[in-house]
Design goal:
heterodimer; A: mainly alpha; 18 helices; 65% helix; B: 253 residues; 6 strands; 15% strand
């Protein structure tokens, strides 16, 4: 515990109050550690806006959510009507609702950009593994939050989207059907489902989410921010003990982020006020039809932010399972013939792959689709240990690495596009290529990230004064 | 790289074919007028809506007194648009009993409050769809109601606007398409005249659709008006934030 500080009787009332608080709560210390004396690299670029922006969107979602809950009714008989009531009869209700619905999509846009930033600059590498893992957990929570929130308007897409996704759980062998029943609370999506999803959406998941955000920031401020050069600024300190390439977060980055927030709000409010549906992507047209358990829509697609993963699910057909079996078998052959592993390790590999192939062929392709979809997200958690590149930032990697990342991004967007479309033969084929690339990109990282000619990483960050 | 390009191109062409087939089962939608700022058109549409639609369809989330937004006074609403038993703060409920409707038409007439939003698709806005739908009815003795529709084949709803429109039938011509003969829709032929000329009828349906589009989101014009001010403010604020940022950062070398 810090020593009790006396203050001179001549001090102003404000100083006296602060001293009184500081003797009981580390207010000044927190302010210094997280703002005025948190040294961040001075070479942040465009991508570094998205961390602050995701906090902004989180706050928007919580505040608008509080007001929506005041008028929304989680009851299958009146839920749809209560949303229209908010849109019509509640003063400024339409604004609150559009902020929340646009905020949901905006959240995923900023978080995808934020994750992409971490990916290309190696922000998950030692010592920032936990920052990254907390971030991945936030992403998972966000998906759960968005999925359950989407049921609440009780439109056709809400209903059938939830029906399709919850049914996926029933594909899990042995426990699946009971698990799906537990999630729904009924044999079909119904009032019970709506009530529990409401409960999770407004309190359970947001609580976890907030806790994780705090953990994410504490971990970040413990190790310090990475930067586009992937240079550790703490390695070069000035005589005052502060990093030479670091600047205090406040005022430099708070002012900087105000600019970012302002530009973001320009885009965000333009959508809210001029195109809140965004052509059926942020608010799906079908969701203006009340949920009808007896009428299945012709084409059920999740909202755009889930579609890359939904595409991977749909890509996992029987043919795809065969392809995966062949890939597994070939990799076992490769391990046996080409690596210097001890014979015991080789035996274990062969047996493991054999078991995997048997399992692949035993269970339904639908189940493996669920595994692929879940695996695509879970994979991200392991990124810090998959990447063996000698440099952090993409700036100092071989040029062909940049191409691998570019193709990864393009295929991720293509997967997202295909997930919105009705299934087609060529679409499935492209999605299968995309899925294999996605997994290959991550699983083969220990191999390919070491290859090629790396550029010399400078000692200090590169920075051109504004 | 070439393969990748091929994939990209084929996915693009996929996109194109999807657009083309988006309105399968129907015809290409006509562009509806969208004058939700035109009070005369909205009021005429509201009158048509109450007279022709509200007998069977509800607009259960729309209150009568919201019509004040389109320039009607409470007195005018009470005198011209309300059924005798309704109060001006009530929502628009159909006269018909849903069970009867189901028995008569084989389907429950859907609620029309947000119909203009829910019928939107990549083929056009919901307004375009309704505008086309209400103008493509034709006599078909094989149907229970005696009516059929080009935009919504085998629809359960009869042509309630037939007095205004009269009776028409579509004209097809046989044409070679991709090597085989197909019937191609060419236009309409009037059989019996309605109370309105075809131009007047299109105008009336246009007003009705304008009203439906407005009713699907009564705040839409307020939304745009507020939005203009918000965006203007943010433009100024962004300028200030930009200069402030430059002022702070000029010391950083």
């Amino acid at each position: 515990m810090a020593e009790f500080k006396e203050i001179s009787p001549d001090a102003s009332n404000g100083e006296k109050l602060l001293n009184w608080v500081d003797n009981r709560f580390p207010l000044s210390q927190l302010y210094k550690e997280h703002l005025s004396e948190y040294y961040a690299p001075k070479n942040f670029n465009f991508f570094y806006f998205f961390g602050a922006l995701s906090i902004l969107v989180l706050v928007i979602q919580i505040v608008t959510g509080i007001f929506l809950v005041m008028h929304y009714k989680p009851d299958a008989a009146v839920a749809f009507a209560s949303v229209e009531y908010i849109m019509r009869d509640v003063p400024w209700g339409w604004l609150i609702r559009y902020m929340h619905s646009t905020g949901a999509s905006a959240f995923f846009i900023v978080v995808y950009m934020h994750m992409f930033r971490g990916l290309i600059y190696g922000s998950y590498r030692k010592p920032r593994e936990l920052v990254w893992i907390f971030g991945c957990a936030i992403f998972l929570c966000l998906m759960a939050e968005a999925f359950m929130g989407y049921l609440l308007p009780w439109g056709q897409m809400s209903y059938w989207g939830a029906q399709v996704i919850v049914n996926l759980f029933s594909a899990i062998p042995f426990i699946g059907p009971d698990l799906a029943l537990l999630i729904r609370g009924d044999y079909v999506v119904g009032d019970a489902t709506l009530n529990r999803f409401f409960s999770f959406h407004v309190i359970a998941v947001p609580l976890v989410l907030l806790g994780l955000v705090v953990a994410h920031i504490i971990a970040l401020h413990e190790v310090g921010s990475n930067n586009p050069d992937g240079v550790e600024i703490k390695a070069t300190k000035g005589p005052d003990g502060n990093p030479l390439d670091g600047i205090p977060f406040h005022p430099y980055y708070t002012i900087h982020d105000i600019l970012g927030v302002s530009v973001f709000l320009l885009v965000f409010t333009s959508i809210i006020f001029f195109a809140p549906e965004v052509g059926g992507y942020f608010l799906e047209y079908n969701n203006f039809i009340p949920a009808d358990p007896l009428k299945t829509p012709l084409h059920i697609a999740p909202v755009w932010y889930f579609t890359p993963y939904y595409s991977m699910l749909r890509a996992t057909t029987d043919v795809m399972v065969n392809v995966l079996s062949i890939i597994a078998a070939l990799s076992a052959v490769f391990v046996v013939l080409k690596t210097a592993m001890q014979s015991r390790g080789k035996v274990i590999t062969v047996v493991g792959v054999a078991v995997l192939i048997v399992l692949l062929k035993t269970f339904d392709a639908k189940f493996w689709g669920v595994v692929v979809m879940g695996g695509a997200v879970v994979m991200l958690f392991f990124l810090p240990w998959l990447d063996h590149s000698p440099v952090k930032s993409i700036r100092y990697r071989p040029t062909w690495h940049k191409w691998l990342y570019a193709v990864f991004v393009v295929l991720f967007i293509v997967l997202g596009y295909l997930g919105i479309q009705p299934p087609s033969e060529i679409g499935t084929l492209i999605a299968q290529v995309g899925t294999i690339y996605y997994f290959g990109f991550f699983l083969l990282m220990p191999w390919w990230t070491q290859l090629g000619e790396f550029k010399q990483v400078p000692d200090r960050v590169t920075f051109a004064a504004h | 790289m070439k393969k990748l390009l091929l994939i990209l191109i084929s996915s693009l062409s996929l996109f194109a074919t999807n657009l083309a087939s988006a309105n399968e089962g129907g015809i290409i939608w006509d562009k509806a007028p969208n004058n939700t700022n035109d009070l005369a058109s909205l009021q005429h549409g509201a009158k048509l809506f109450v007279n022709y639609c509200l007998n069977c369809h509800s607009a259960a989330y729309m209150r009568f007194n919201r019509l004040k937004d389109i320039g009607l006074t409470e007195q005018q609403i009470k005198e011209n648009l309300l059924f005798t038993t309704d109060k001006v703060g009530d929502t628009m409920k159909a006269n018909i009993d849903p069970k009867q409707a189901k028995a008569w038409f084989g389907a429950n007439p859907p609620d029309l409050t947000v119909i203009a939003r829910s019928r939107s698709s990549h083929a056009g806005s919901g307004g375009d769809y309704i505008y086309t739908y209400l103008r493509t009815y034709y006599r078909d003795p094989s149907k229970a109601t005696g009516w059929n529709n080009l935009a919504y084949p085998n629809v359960a709803m009869p042509n309630v606007l037939w007095e205004l429109q009269g009776e028409r039938h579509p004209v097809y011509s046989k044409e070679e398409v991709h090597g085989h003969e197909e019937e191609v829709f060419k236009g309409w032929e009037q059989d019996t005249p309605g109370q309105l000329s075809p131009e007047q009828y299109d105008q009336a349906v246009g007003d009705l659709v304008t009203y439906l589009q407005w009713m699907s989101e009564p705040a839409q014009n307020t939304r745009v008006r507020v939005g203009v001010w918000v965006v203007m403010f943010l433009l100024c604020f962004t300028f200030v934030a930009w200069r402030l940022n430059a002022a702070y950062w000029k010391d950083i070398r």
